[in-house]
Amino acid sequence: MSGKLRLALLAFVALLPSPVARVCYRWFFGYKIGKRVRLGFSVIDAGECTIADDVSIGHLNIFTGVHKLEIGDHTRIGVLNIFRGGAEISIGRYCEILRLNEINSIPEPDPVNPVDPRFLMGNGSMIAASHKIDFTDRVEFGKSVIMGGRNSSIWTHNRQMTRQVMIGDNTYLGSEIRIAPGGSIPARCIVGIGSVITKAFENEYHLIAGVPATEIKPLGEDGRFLTERKTRKDLPDDI
Description:
Layout: H1 3-14, H2 18-29, E1 32-33, E2 38-39, E3 43-51, E4 56-57, E5 62-71, E6 76-79, E7 82-84, E8 88-91, E9 96-99, E10 102-104, E11 118-121, E12 126-129, E13 132-134, E14 139-141, E15 146-150, E16 153-154, E17 165-167, E18 172-173, E19 178-179, E20 184-185, E21 190-191, E22 196-197, E23 206-210, E24 213-218, H3 221-228
């Protein structure tokens, strides 16, 4: 099937009612789609696709050029999100991606180093609104990470070199932050509004903030509570 014909068929399937769309994705494209999956008017174009039980995908999302797409059970994806390119996009169980986010890997990049274009989102993690994530090289969120607020960006490449970005478990990223290639945040940290992360940090339970960002202070009891609070009311205790 040619690329243009495939895309046209996928666009047609996207307009069908959710029960019919699920059947078409299974029969014509070989996608594995679980029970009680709700699909809005969204295009899902992936070489391999697995969507687990009780997933909800809203309207006007686009998944395109993704080699392998996996979405864990009970995950919710809102509206007007773009997922583009890469070897793999893996979204864990009980995740939430709200609206107007762009998660993108440059097709056919020309770096001088090996790359691993994968976006891995741990169980229970959440991305709010209007964020940009470049995963030309690997970007990995641990479990129960919150990318809160709006207009933050994560970058893994400059013109010809890439470095991976890692965010540890239960970390909170504030609004309008920037993470440069190679930036890394440990588990159970809070990153303040407007911070610019230019290096890999190592110490857990810290407030990180500033331009460029530094470790401001260890988290007190209130800060620790924020990092340990469940990201969703229905999040199982084992996540």
